[in-house]
Amino acid sequence: MADSDNPNWGECPKCGSPVMIDPASGRLQACARCASAASPYSGVLGVFFLLLGLAAVVALVYFCIELIL
Question: Is the dihedral of CA 33, 37, 39, 45 positive or negative?
Answer without folding.
Answer: positive
